[in-house]
Design goal:
This protein is mainly alpha-helical and 342 residues long. The chain has twelve helices and six strands. Strands 1-2 form a two-stranded antiparallel ribbon. One of its GO terms (cellular component) is plasma membrane.
């Protein structure tokens, strides 16, 4: 009997000691997970598509973000989160603990980058901006991107986004916008399709950089189309000459249109052709497209620059001629000021 009791006591003692050892090991493990990490600097850490947990853990240790990749993998195993780490680029704070690093890679939001693509640029000009972005990856698409098919905007993206994917997003954004605005367009527009809406919006976009003028200019062009008048828009001439690139003289200075270019018939020169140009002349923004589909009804059919960034509008040729004369006077005054240094 004494022997049996002694064996039971020994078993209990070993069990207690084992539990104590196990408990101490668990407490040590939790301490290792929660203690500040070795890196005193903020890190941007990229998890590549298809990268394994082991690869991520090893790189975290190699870059001095965590002390032991084995603890990282063990925690993931115990938590059942081996496949939960996201793809993307993550911002890891200085001295981040192993638990905080794992939480960021699983639940955190990856870093966004942005590219701003302005309204009124040709497709070739926007594609050059996309190609030059240092964060985007991959080659430019081999297939031709149609003029006017991109929606200018500021786009957010993760590191690892391809140039082809971003261009696809821009095309989809324009298609989605047209799907939204087309059913709500004004009645009796002389525009037969979404494509024609984009063409006219591109002309409106190039005519003014002032947001408040777009509905007026859109209304003016709509009125001219309804009356069978030509649009007579200078940017359409320029597109027919240089595909929208600035015009320069032989000395490399910016120049205005030559009379021969105004008289030259192209598929875009709206001084020489009826109706709309053959294609858009740039990529219009959402405001220009919205203005074309719901223009202001002002009755204006003429406009001229006012020399201050805006335009003067007129309903009659006589009124328009007065506005042109006013603009010429303003031009002469500005030239005189430049000459006198006032």
């Amino acid at each position: 009997m004494k022997l049996i009791k002694g064996l039971i006591s020994l078993f209990v003692l070993l069990f207690v000691l084992g539990g104590a050892v196990a408990g101490g090991g668990w407490l040590w493990f939790q301490h290792e997970l929660s203690k500040p990490g070795p890196s005193a600097e903020q890190h941007l850490f990229l998890v590549e598509p298809g990268e394994t947990l082991g690869g991520v853990a090893q790189r975290l240790e190699d870059e001095g973000i965590i002390s032991d990749d084995r603890l990282f993998k063990l925690k993931a195993k115990l938590d059942g989160t081996e496949l939960a780490i996201k793809t993307g680029e993550f911002e890891l704070e200085p001295r981040a603990s192993l638990s905080e690093v794992m939480e960021t890679l699983i639940d955190g939001k990856s870093v966004f980058y942005k590219i701003t693509l302005p309204e009124g640029r040709t497709t070739a000009q926007l594609l050059k901006m996309v190609e030059a972005d240092p964060v985007l990856i991959g080659d430019m698409p081999e297939e031709e991107v149609a003029e006017g098919s991109l929606l200018p905007d500021t786009y957010l993206f993760h590191r690892g986004t391809s140039r082809a994917d971003l261009i696809g997003r821009m095309q989809k954004a324009q298609a989605d916008l047209l799907d939204e605005l087309w059913p709500r367009r004004a009645e009796d527009l002389p525009i037969a399709s979404k494509e024609e809406a984009v063409i006219l919006a591109s002309v409106v976009e190039k005519e003014t950089g002032i947001a408040g003028e777009r509905p007026q200019i859109a209304g003016l062009f709509i009125t001219r189309l309804k009356r069978g008048m030509r649009l007579e828009s200078d940017p359409t001439i320029i597109y027919g000459v240089s595909k929208g690139e600035p015009l320069y003289n032989k000395s490399g200075q910016r120049r205005t249109l030559y009379r021969s270019e105004i008289n030259r018939k192209t598929d875009w020169n709206t001084y020489q052709i009826d109706g709309l140009p053959k294609t858009p002349i740039c990529n219009p923004g959402r405001d220009a497209i919205a203005a074309v589909l719901n223009p202001e009804e002002t009755g204006h059919i003429f406009f001229v620059a006012d020399g201050k960034g805006g335009h003067l509008f007129a309903k009659t040729l006589a009124e328009h001629n007065k506005n042109v004369a006013a603009y010429r006077r303003y031009e002469r005054q500005e030239i005189q000021r430049e000459r006198t240094g006032q």
